[in-house]
Here is the input.
Amino acid sequence: MNKWVLLEHKVYSANSLNIHYDFLVENGIDCLTWKFLKIPLLNQASTEIFKQPNHRIVWLSRIEHELSGNRGFVKRIDHGIFKKVSNKLDSVYCRLILDGELLNGLFEISGNSCRLSKNY
Here is the structure.
């Protein structure tokens, strides 16, 4: 179905609260997953992104979830359907058209950077 989701992940630690974002893209039996520290803004500079282990498909439908082992709390902040610009969906390089509220436009991942633009 080509679903994607953007999750805000709050990580609890002894004296602080750290927040990052998990971006998941449906990939058959699981989801390709990346992490970034700030949400890419439309037509702005590239944002650093980090490949993570693939996540289970169930994360595409969760709205909020307390993680086991005091690993934090996850909340869906954007989601939708993607369209591949190229035939290949790759964890190192991919180009997707996203239809979300926050992530809307051409989303490009190249290595450890990503960019959101309206040029597609």
